[in-house]
Amino acid sequence: MELRTAASPRDVKHYTTERLREEFLIEKVFREDEIYLVYSHIDRIITGSAMPIKKELVLTAGDELRAEYFLQRREMGVINIGGPGTIIVDGKAYEVGTKEGMYIGMGKKDIAFSSQDSENPAKFYINSAPAHMTYPTILIKPEGTPSDDVVIVKDENKVELGTLEDANHRTICKYILPGQVESCQLEMGITALEPGSVWNTMPCHTHDRRMEVYLYFEIPEDSFVMHFMGEPTETRHLVMRNEEAVISPSWSIHSGCGSRNYTFIWGMVGENQDFDDMDNVDLKDLK
């Protein structure tokens, strides 16, 4: 598990591009037949992946957590952006299709990941946060039929925003949030931009009460996203490619503009789960 420390906005304004990338960019998120994790001191979020191809991958705590097992004091959200896969939680198997997700509650001990087809492997994207109580483990689907352990994303949690004229026509699909899938602090979802739109989260905002991590994907090899971060009056940028992630501190904006449309997963942790609790930034105030 890679460790990353927190950063002061007063320091970040002096960073070179190389230093910005070292501190905030997670360049190779998915690694074949490996569980790869990054532990950030910013709200103690863990971001990473499991990409099983030829073998089942078992999640362990590692020395960094000083825990008997990974979710002893944590909760976890997972969204699969690859082929169909399976997540086994304490002996129970969940079939997780493309763009389906899971919330796994604190206290679950044995967690393993596998792919149904090695030629089209699953790519399980992971966010994990400290937890104080146990909520039910749930399989999350954008469409389908609900059951005891399957939640379908509610229509009111599929939000269409922006316009093609403003180049930010997008749909937000909220997976983990209060009223749909309960958690201690973690929220996750997917935002997809429509063809012809390139801006996400614009107008932009900050939220002092929680931080955020983005995973950009569905970006062609010859395309990129220019991710903007930093204080609203001290903006910085990172050039990001397909299936790369970026850590966004609570004091930083988190907005992007691509060379074409793309999709991203957002994950938030902190002391507040109010999705609309944000400090909006007027476009004329950006510098």
Automatic annotation (TrEMBL):
<dbReference type="InterPro" id="IPR011051">
    <property type="entry name" value="RmlC_Cupin_sf"/>
</dbReference>
<protein>
    <recommendedName>
        <fullName>4-deoxy-L-threo-5-hexosulose-uronate ketol-isomerase</fullName>
        <ecNumber>5.3.1.17</ecNumber>
    </recommendedName>
</protein>
<dbReference type="InterPro" id="IPR007045">
    <property type="entry name" value="KduI"/>
</dbReference>
<keyword id="KW-0479">Metal-binding</keyword>
<feature type="binding site">
    <location>
        <position position="254"/>
    </location>
    <ligand>
        <name>Zn(2+)</name>
    </ligand>
</feature>
<comment type="pathway">
    <text>Glycan metabolism; pectin degradation; 2-dehydro-3-deoxy-D-gluconate from pectin: step 4/5.</text>
</comment>
<feature type="binding site">
    <location>
        <position position="212"/>
    </location>
    <ligand>
        <name>Zn(2+)</name>
    </ligand>
</feature>
<comment type="function">
    <text>Catalyzes the isomerization of 5-dehydro-4-deoxy-D-glucuronate to 3-deoxy-D-glycero-2,5-hexodiulosonate.</text>
</comment>
<feature type="binding site">
    <location>
        <position position="207"/>
    </location>
    <ligand>
        <name>Zn(2+)</name>
    </ligand>
</feature>
<keyword id="KW-0413">Isomerase</keyword>
<feature type="binding site">
    <location>
        <position position="205"/>
    </location>
    <ligand>
        <name>Zn(2+)</name>
    </ligand>
</feature>
<dbReference type="InterPro" id="IPR027449">
    <property type="entry name" value="KduI_N"/>
</dbReference>
<dbReference type="InterPro" id="IPR014710">
    <property type="entry name" value="RmlC-like_jellyroll"/>
</dbReference>
<dbReference type="GO" id="GO:0008697">
    <property type="term" value="F:4-deoxy-L-threo-5-hexosulose-uronate ketol-isomerase activity"/>
</dbReference>
<dbReference type="Pfam" id="PF04962">
    <property type="entry name" value="KduI"/>
</dbReference>
<comment type="similarity">
    <text>Belongs to the KduI family.</text>
</comment>
<keyword id="KW-0862">Zinc</keyword>
<dbReference type="InterPro" id="IPR021120">
    <property type="entry name" value="KduI/IolB_isomerase"/>
</dbReference>
